[in-house]
Write a structure and sequence with these properties.
4-stranded antiparallel sheet, 3-stranded antiparallel sheet
């Protein structure tokens, strides 16, 4: 199983959003300190936002997972996750910025390669190799 994590540029955006939420919640907790219950609620919200920011920065979410059984595209902070078995894939193509997985008929899944960042070429090689293995193809080795 190979995991491809969210690129740092998207992770930093999520971390920044969490830090801003933590700042606003901490300010509200300080402003509403006369009402103890609300101050505690906003204080806990600020703490939870900081913890979430640290978690996302330390362990970016997995957005693509490949294994012998199939391909899972999407995840937290990206698109809705979808699992595609290798034998259901009819074609895989790439655009300048997107990966297209054709499942036959009108079912084409588009996935932005920016989510995996610099590992996009590694992902494409992995997908093609696993598709070849699933369909029984081998590399040609001249004898």
């Amino acid at each position: 199983m190979t995991n491809y994590r969210l690129d740092r540029r998207f992770v930093l955006l999520a971390v920044g959003t969490n830090v801003m939420v933590a700042g606003v919640a901490a300010a509200l907790a300080l402003f509403l300190s006369s009402v103890a219950v609300l101050a505690w609620i906003f204080g806990l919200l600020a703490l939870a936002a900081v913890v979430n920011a640290v978690r996302v920065f330390a362990f970016p979410p997995v957005v693509v997972r490949t294994d012998p059984g199939g391909l899972r595209l999407g995840g937290p902070l990206t698109v809705k996750p979808i699992h595609v078995p290798w034998l259901d894939v009819e074609d895989v193509t790439i655009d300048s910025a997107r990966l297209f997985v054709d499942r036959g008929g009108d079912a084409v899944i588009a996935f932005p390669l920016a989510y995996v960042g610099s590992r996009a070429t590694e992902l494409l090689r992995d997908i093609y190799d696993r598709l070849n293995t699933a369909n029984g193809y081998r590399r040609f080795t001249p004898s």
